[in-house]
From TrEMBL:
Domain AB hydrolase-1: 27-268
GO cellular component labels: membrane
Protein name: Pimeloyl-ACP methyl ester carboxylesterase
Signal peptide interval: none
């Protein structure tokens, strides 16, 4: 059954934010990745909206949302999404984040634990240093002209060229050529290209990812977490997510062997049943000030699990 969806534009302190909303019930806030838009969630919205209020937003400067005054940090994006939820009349939500959106979801939970019910991380950033050379290159001097050129390449040509790059080690997965081509098309617009570059430089440099959630993970130990990734991801190494799953043994996890960096686009039929099961079998987190004080001061922190890979350097 198709659930009617509506597109909207709502005023917030950072400018107008564009969103798609569908369904009724507990809110799910879907957060796209770097250079993407809310369109990336088109394969999931209808299914999730059967028993939830699904809100898919364009981050500030992305898609049809206004550019912010200048702050493209994870914290600024998290605050903008908080304002969006409040503007739409929701006090809390389950956060579903892909790639950069996963890092924003983790930051949101750290800044606003009282507004966070659960977290679903899909090929999440912020869990280690390694990242594809293509994104590291976007932080180098002169990258703006190169990215602008990529955005002007016709989509049809891009889809023919990207498979050739997939044979190079550590660049992109063949499964991801279509969604990457769509993201590149969006970079033809100066506003979105500027958001891509400025956001990238807040979390990545020429060596890799510079922002890590590692120190804050113990604060989220009691928050229901679902972690999913593709075995063939060449954008963010699968071992980041495998290590996180070992560090949080209570977390639900799913590795999709046929997927790359975009399992929600290329393998939704494998992802959706697991997400529905996670939502059905877990209770929303309930913030407690005294418990949060214990976690912040280390008095209630969980012991570090043994035999795990480090999440960040």
């Amino acid at each position: 059954m198709t659930v009617p969806a509506a597109d909207g534009l709502i005023a917030t302190p950072v400018g107008n934010l564009a969103y798609t909303i569908a369904g009724a019930g507990e809110p799910l806030l879907l957060i796209h990745g770097l250079g993407g838009t809310r369109r990336t969630w088109r394969h999931l919205i209808d299914s999730l909206a059967t028993d939830h209020t699904v809100i898919a937003a364009d981050l500030p400067g992305h898609g049809h949302s206004d550019a912010p005054a200048g702050d493209y940090s994870l914290g600024a994006h998290a605050s903008a999404l908080r304002d969006l939820l409040v503007a739409l009349g929701h006090s809390d939500a389950t956060l579903v984040g892909h790639s950069l959106g996963g890092g924003i979801a983790l930051q949101f939970a750290y800044q606003f634990p009282e507004r966070t019910n659960r977290i679903v991380l899909i090929s999440s950033g912020g869990l280690g240093t390694e990242v594809t050379p293509l994104l590291r290159a976007a932080t180098l001097p002169g990258a703006a002209a190169f990215v602008a050129g990529l955005g002007r390449i016709p989509t049809g040509l891009t889809r023919r060229v990207l498979p050739a790059l997939s044979v190079l080690p550590g660049v992109i997965a063949r499964q991801d050529t279509r969604p990457i081509a769509e993201d590149l098309r969006g970079l033809a617009h100066p506003r979105q290209r500027r958001a891509f570059l400025r956001t990238a430089r807040t979390v990545i440099d020429w060596r890799g990812q510079t922002v890590s959630a590692s120190r804050q993970l113990s604060l989220l130990a009691e928050l229901p977490v679902f972690i999913t990734w593709g075995s063939r991801d060449r954008t963010i190494p699968p071992h980041h997510h495998q290590a996180l799953a070992r560090r949080i043994p209570e977390a639900h996890s799913l590795e999709i062997s046929t997927a790359g960096h975009y399992p929600h686009e290329t393998a939704p039929e494998q992802l959706l049943p697991a997400v529905h099961e996670f939502l059905r079998t877990t209770q929303p987190y309930r913030y407690d000030e005294e418990r949060w004080r214990q976690l912040v001061t280390g008095a209630g922190a969980l012991d570090e699990p043994k035999n795990t890979l480090p999440l960040a350097v």
